[in-house]
């Protein structure tokens, strides 16, 4: 079961229907997808934003692609599946293309782990002075070197 937010633009006032539950577990053919697309187009709906997490949407896409045997479909049928995924996921066409190419290569759509290293950041809160100014002009001695050593020893 998935929760969708359907919206369309009716002139200057957007029309939004919230909390619609659609069970697409019984979809087994591209013709059924095409019927859903035509129904959405008849309502004037351009996109349907899923109210699920990215992991859940990726799982839903995997399920659809496996159930319809996407790899063995003809080009026209693949286009219908892509249109359905774009319409009911709320993702851009380029994102859908990227995810489907991942499915074609790896056999599964999955979220890739972050590859950029994340280093700890230490903020000392002072400039180059050997002390930090306190209330009423008082001075507190401060050593960046000692603070960094303390933080690094605490982290490692």
Shape: elongated
> pLDDT average, as an integer?
79
Helix content: 40-55%
Strand arrangement, major sheet: 2-1-3
| Assembly state of the chains shown | single chain
**What is the tally of beta strands?**
5
Distance separating the two termini:
45 Å
How much of the sequence is in beta strands? 15-25%
What is the count of helical runs? 5
What can you tell me about this protein's structure?
This protein has five helices and five strands. A three-stranded antiparallel sheet has the order 2-1-3. A two-stranded antiparallel ribbon has the order 4-5. The protein has helices spanning 30-43, 54-67, 75-89, 93-106, 144-155, and strands at 2-10, 13-22, 47-50, 131-133, 139-141. The chain is of the alpha+beta class and 156 residues long. Helix 1 crosses helix 3. It folds into two domains: 2-106, no CATH class; 119-156, no CATH class. It is elongated, with a radius of gyration of 26 Å. A hairpin with a 2-residue loop joins strand 1 (2-10) and strand 2. The model is unreliable at 6-21 (pLDDT under 50).
């Amino acid at each position: 079961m998935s929760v969708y937010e359907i919206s369309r633009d009716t002139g200057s006032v957007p029309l939004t229907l919230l909390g619609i539950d659609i069970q697409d577990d019984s979809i087994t053919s591209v013709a059924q997808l095409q019927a859903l697309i035509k129904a959405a187009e008849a309502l004037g709906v351009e996109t349907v934003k899923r109210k699920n997490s990215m992991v859940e949407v990726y799982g839903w896409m995997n399920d659809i692609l496996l159930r319809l045997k996407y790899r063995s479909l003809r080009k026209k049928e693949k286009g219908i599946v892509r249109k359905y995924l774009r319409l009911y996921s709320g993702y851009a066409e380029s994102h859908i293309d990227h995810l489907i190419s991942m499915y074609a290569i790896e056999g599964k759509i999955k979220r890739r782990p972050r590859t950029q290293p994340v280093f700890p950041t230490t903020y000392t809160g002072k400039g180059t002075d050997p002390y930090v100014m306190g209330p009423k002009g008082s001075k507190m001695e401060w050593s960046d070197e000692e603070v960094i050593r303390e933080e690094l020893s605490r982290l490692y």
